[in-house]
Design a protein that fits this description.
By secondary structure, this protein is α/β, with parallel strands linked by helices. Strand 2, helix 2 and strand 3 form a beta-alpha-beta unit. Bound molecules: nicotinamide-adenine-dinucleotide and ligand 0WE.
């Protein structure tokens, strides 16, 4: 028996086989969850359908989370297909490219609103729409990044949006706790996905990250998948409102360790 056997899980934000959502989908399938996918834009149909087939997922619905109507429609269809829902994963973020370079103070009002709408409100909107369908023991999960807490050059508007997303995770956890529904976030290290590859300077920061992180390794969508299994399973029955770092320990470092290879042997010999 898997850790998610008997649970119905909906995953939002699958774009392709590099997506964090795909790492989560594969881990959930392995643990016996009954899956449904939602994606944005017809363009993605040709990528998402084959992935759904790989995991034998029958529920595949388009939903632009900028639209309350589309969120309501996908919740309606999910109710018809699954009856009840145990898990909703929100793996969506978006800002205009203009808002992800140069100075944060140059952020436009429209760019600020767009990033907050797609990257933050959508999680609240999904929580609202799915709350009536959710069973006790269920959970909501979102994806965040350390740029919410500390300044990451160029992340700019997305950092501010992620800070609001992390706060939203706590407020939703407080709202839904009495119904036995948990709300958590995974704060992932940089991963080469579609959303990340469109970012100038990502390559360098990806490499620097591995050099600075205690474990000297980058993280993968599969790592996020395994952490998501834990957070959405009964193993995390009393964990809610939490931001779980899946980052090779990067966030604990205050100052970079100048030792090139501080492996166990050199630590012991001093
Ligand atoms: P991705 O491009 O594979 O996924 C982003 C998804 O957001 C896509 O599926 C896209 O279709 C969806 N999306 C954008 N606008 C939408 C809309 N209006 N309606 C519905 N869906 C919409 O990239 P990813 O890196 O897997 O991103 C998933 C999540 O992980 C995001 O929240 C991102 O901020 C977060 N994250 C990414 C990294 C990283 O380095 N890649 C690190 C930490 C957190
Ligand atoms: O959350 C993210 C990705 C956010 C993102 C990326 C894009 C690129 C293409 C949101 N919207 C867009 N819009 C686009 O048009 N990450 C954590 C990955 C990421 O993005 C960065 C990073 C890192 C890390 C942007 C600048 C600096 C670092």
């Amino acid at each position: 028996m898997g850790l998610l056997t008997g649970k119905n899980a909906l995953i939002f934000g699958l774009a392709n086989d590099k997506s964090i959502a795909w790492g989560i989908a594969q881990a959930f399938a392995r643990e016996g969850a009954n899956l449904g996918f939602s994606y944005a834009g017809e363009m993605l149909t040709k990528r998402v359908r084959p992935l759904a087939e790989q995991l034998n997922v029958k529920f595949v619905e388009e939903c632009d989370v900028a639209s309350d109507e589309q969120i309501a429609a996908v919740a309606e269809k999910a109710k018809a297909h699954f009856g009840e829902i145990d898990i909703v994963v929100h793996s969506i973020g978006f800002a205009n490219k203009d808002e992800l370079q140069g100075y944060f103070y140059n952020t436009s009002r429209a760019g600020f609103h767009l990033a907050m709408d797609i990257s933050v409100y959508s999680f609240v909107g999904l929580a609202r729409a799915f709350q009536p369908l959710m069973r006790r023991g269920g959970s909501l999960l979102t994806l965040t990044y350390y740029g919410a807490v500390k300044v990451a050059p160029n992340y700019n508007m997305m950092g501010v949006a992620k800070a609001a997303l992390e706060a939203s995770t706590r407020y939703l956890a407080a709202d839904f706790g009495p119904q036995g529904i948990r709300v958590n976030a995974i704060s992932a290290g940089p991963i080469r996905t579609l959303a990340a590859m469109g970012v100038s300077g990502f390559r360098d920061m990806y490499k620097n990250y591995a050099d600075m992180a205690p474990m000297r390794e980058n993280v993968t969508p599969a790592d996020c998948g395994n952490a998501a299994v834990f957070l959405c399973s009964d193993m995390a029955a009393h964990t809610t409102g939490e931001i779980l770092y899946v980052d090779s320990g990067y966030n604990i470092m205050g100052v970079m360790d100048p030792r090139k290879e501080s492996n166990q042997a050199s630590v012991v010999s001093g």
